[in-house]
Write a sequence for this structure.
């Protein structure tokens, strides 16, 4: 169980960071928020990929990764937008 939680945090951090990288400009959200967005994006992206039948492919699941990163980018943009208006 502990390794699953640690894995989710590590994968979430990577997915969140990739989500931030695809957005132009600087996003003013913290590291914890980035990791949380990444974890949620990874979970939701996996569920979506499973639902459309692209989660289990031979080799690396590029489509699933693209879905996860896109969701992370949307999440980061949604969190960064309200903070930038201040």
């Amino acid at each position: 169980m502990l390794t699953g939680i640690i894995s989710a945090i590590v994968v979430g951090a990577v997915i969140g960071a990739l989500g931030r990288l695809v957005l132009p400009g600087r996003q003013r959200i913290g590291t914890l928020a980035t990791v949380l967005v990444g974890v949620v994006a990874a979970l939701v992206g996996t569920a979506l990929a499973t639902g459309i039948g692209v989660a289990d492919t031979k080799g690396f699941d590029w489509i699933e990764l693209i879905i996860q990163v896109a969701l992370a980018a949307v999440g980061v943009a949604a969190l960064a937008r309200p903070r930038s208006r201040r």
Notes: Residues 2-81 form one domain.
